[in-house]
Specification:
By secondary structure, this protein is α/β, with parallel strands linked by helices. It is 33% helix and 23% strand. It holds the Pfam family Epimerase.
Amino acid sequence: RFAWIAFPFPSHEGTRWIYILLEEGGGRGSTVRKAGDGPRALVTGGAGGIGHFLVRELLDRGWRVRVLDNFSSGTRGNLHDLSGDPRVEILEGDVLDPPTLLRGVTETEFVWHLSANPDVRRGKEITHLDLEQGTLATQRVLEAMRRASVKCIAFSSSSVVYGFPTVFPTPEDYGPLLPESLYGASKLASEGLVSAFVHTFGFQAWVFRFANVCGPGATHGVIYDFLEKLRHDPHRLEVLGDGSQRKGYLHVEDCVKAMIYATEHGKEPVNVFNLAPEDTISVAEIAQRVVSATGTGARIEYTGGPRGWAGDVPRQHLSIDRLRRLGFTPRYRSAEVVDETIRALRDPVPRSSPVRHG
């Protein structure tokens, strides 16, 4: 197990922080792993919707950051303002390419593995997508870490590993885990690989099961989809399912702060945390909020049925008791997250033109 020790160091530029990574529990055998201006982390998928927020939060806390991204879903614009920052290295490449990945991992102390297929539904159309971009990619990240002697990893999993649970709020020790989508199966398999590398090679890991993460810059999800539909037709909003689906919506700022907090305070070899708000909101209410906020007056039409698509989980309400016991509680509730995301993404949505008669 490992722990960071931080020391303030005054300079003419203000207070800087010196970080030392210690291996715990070794007594005289404890070893200093790193000393310098700050530890270096690798963030896979660092140009994505969550990744670029994480990169900035790490920088604010004194880390140097190397981003590995193939820019298939993340955008260069998310990192544009960091291009001249000496603390940031941007490496364009794919986690499925072992030489690129080994280059990304080398001389880092911590890996944040966020890269994955971001679209759950797309896995039904391209059935090998989640296997390759999820499970196989995770195995290659772990193997590169083993070769480079990097021992700490945070993995972005998902609430979909629970499948359709029967206990709400759903705790981390709920089982059996029976995911209903290929995306969920990939995340669960990846969790298994992470655990195996921890116990086989002496890693330490933090696994985060996300609720729906929203906020500025979102490029997928129900709010994004609703707004895109209204851009194409401001008179009508189609909602998949009957609108009764209820889930938690976590602000991206809460998400990255919780992740970092958990890695600083979770001391087990494998630390598993649900990351979610304390409440939920229905898809029908989200649709109504989108229509109201955009001023389109669109009529809402439901396709019917309890699920939006095959593999959709109609109810998600995660327990965050474990996270709260650690000392962290999310700031935002689901409705606040939905409203802020709508405000950030809504322009330009055309308003409905008045109906003309005769």
